[in-house]
Amino acid sequence: MKERLVIFDTTLRDGEQSPGASMTRDEKIRVARQLERMKVDVIEAGFAAASPGDFDAIRAIAEAIKESTVCSLARANENDIRRAGEAIRPAAKRRIHTFIATSPIHMEKKLRMTPDQVVEQAVKAIGWAREYTDDVEFSAEDAGRSELDFLCRVFTAVIEAGATTINVPDTVGYNLPGQFAETIKQLIARVPGADKVVWSVHCHNDLGLAVANSLAAVLVGARQVECTINGLGERAGNASLEEVVMAVKTRADIFPVETGIDTTQIVPASKLVSQITGYPVQPNKAVVGANAFAHESGIHQDGVLKHRETYEIMRAEDVGWTQNKLVLGKHSGRNAFKTRLAELGIELAGDEALNAAFARFKELADKKHEIFDEDLQALVSDETVTPEDEHYKLVYSRVCSETGETPEAAVTLTAGGAEHKAGAVGSGPVDATFRAIESVAKSGSELLLYSVNAITTGTDAQGEVTVRLSRGGRIVNGNGADTDIVIASAKAYLNALNKLHSAGDKVNPQGDV
Ligand code: KIV
Ligand code: ZN
Question: Which domains are assigned to the chain?
Fold first, then answer.
């Protein structure tokens, strides 16, 4: 029997700290449900003290999720821990994850605390957390640049105080695999009570080594890896869940552990997170990139056809790649539509949402003969927007674009229920449309990114547009899909404006003390 490697997913917390990747409550619930379907052991659902909205989202996830443990992050102070404890209270299995920085630079410059004060605070934090749950994780932030003797001291103290998982983050992605593995090995050997806790690692990808460092740690005794779908996370991101899980599975000859992950749910999870956050997956990304199983060179194709293992170490279907599956067409009925959504794990809230989605499906099927799973995913994402998330709504859009003429756009949109019409010219139809919208919204935001991807193949494919806006230091991503990319662009722009509009102040757990 192999030992269990606990998969701790932090897409909804560290992943959400990526610029613009903030998700609405309903989007977070959809991601959490997919993580549970994938059999993730622990879902870090957020940082409860960040804002009332984050608290509510964690609570809703705690109510919805039955199989995975639901966790909230908390800084090592009483207020954060009590917020975390309250947010996760309804969960069938719950964890509080509390942290404090331990590196000389963080203690001196950020916390302005002495090492003694840090140890004392960490111990108190475990005490508060244990009032809510027996499952308490402690992280030494910036452990990757902390002194080994001090780490041993802090960890010894928090284990005595009742921490059950000890996490060693390489917060700034500074470590190399051999060095990081040596740190983990030393900690396990030196800390009294090490055999009573689960040792965990949380690696950032600043040097592209997050997965390598995590796996090196597993080889010397780490039994939990913290990771995210598509490697999302602060700066260069976290270790990518799909790479860690597939490395352990594919190299079962090397790893003395196994995960409980249903790997066929990996690609659906990747697509869902990409679509919700507006972070596209690079085509050559391991496991979930569109090219991960595509063979370009004739020699490789020939080899794979003769015997697939000549060039393939994993099977595409094992990670959830299916052929672009034609699922429905214009003659499909409401029941077939509902059944396929259920197979994709999509639950719409009530008959009204289902009817609205079905009506939009019929409209799409009129424009596009073949409807694929990806089209359905994009379609329902509009249906999960709640009225409070939708201050601005597109009613009508028209563009005129001719050779030698300046493109013009006309839009009608509602803002808080009131209808507005506007027109503008621009360097292209999308530019003109954005200017027309902006003349109504007057958001004063800066456009940081505009990108279009075809959801499926063919010129009748839906274009999926991502728009990233920034205002007053806040960055949001908006998405929109349509067979007409100008309309998709208008939807994406309005979606981003809605996020700016509904966004309250939010505390970054690692940025604010
Ligand atoms: O990177 C980090 O140190 C973290 C901690 C809060 C675990 O995200
Ligand atoms: Zn992190």
Answer: 3-277 (3.20.20.70), 387-501 (3.30.160.270)
